[in-house]
Amino acid sequence: TALQHRLLLWDCPSECDYSCQHVVTDKRLAREPPYREPVLQFHGKWPFYRFLGMQEPFSVIFSLLNFLAHDHGMKVLREKVPASYPLRKFYLGFGYFGLASWIFSCIFHTRDFSLTEKLDYFGAGASVMYGMFLSVVRVFRLDKDTPKRSSVLRAWILLCITLYLAHICYLSFWRFDYTYNMAANVVVGIIQNIIWSGFSISRYQKTKRTWAAWPGMIVAWVILAMSLELFDFPPWWGAIDAHSLWHLMTVFPTLWWYSFLIKDAQEDLQGLRLKA
Hints:
It is a single chain. The protein has ten helices and no strands. It is an all-alpha fold.
């Protein structure tokens, strides 16, 4: 076994499993007449060709690109939005959750174990939950330092944490239900998409500025990209499948989203200066 394979915990059973998957797949592809579905899934996953010990190399690469998109967006946001702006810490929080979720995605697609799978799912869930948290904070301006809004913000934080902990406890201690996990993330995602779309339409109608419509456009892009998950197909050249393309499709909207957050903050700050 090559050194990089040993470092990534490829042992004798996993090497045998990997080799057998490709022996079976190659024989099915070579059959005449061909099978209707020549490529089968093993353990619920397509038979990918590994690279440097990585089970799904393109998913790893595209996850890394998303990580770099968040890292770049956070750097620009720090440069262009002053630390005194109250929403800045919430926007950076979005970035930190994004960085963590994409690191866990890289780890999981490098080697699929029970632990790495849970880290990936829980990290993605936390990022989606924070996205919904942020949408309510921004749209209803819970960042403003008034007694009523501060109380609502504390209650909203507590509710989001409680829901997330209940979610991971169910998956960890009751049943690791893939269908439930997907449904939960979709529901939370739909809620924030509706909030941001409504906010986008309202802001555009008031300002007539193109950037105000960006959240709605980004939501449309992400929904379109998510459709890749519904139309799964055997990996092209044993390397690129619908899931990896979904990761690729989220890189640009991530960069676009940070551009919106910066524009929105600058517009808000300009309005505060005019009032002063």
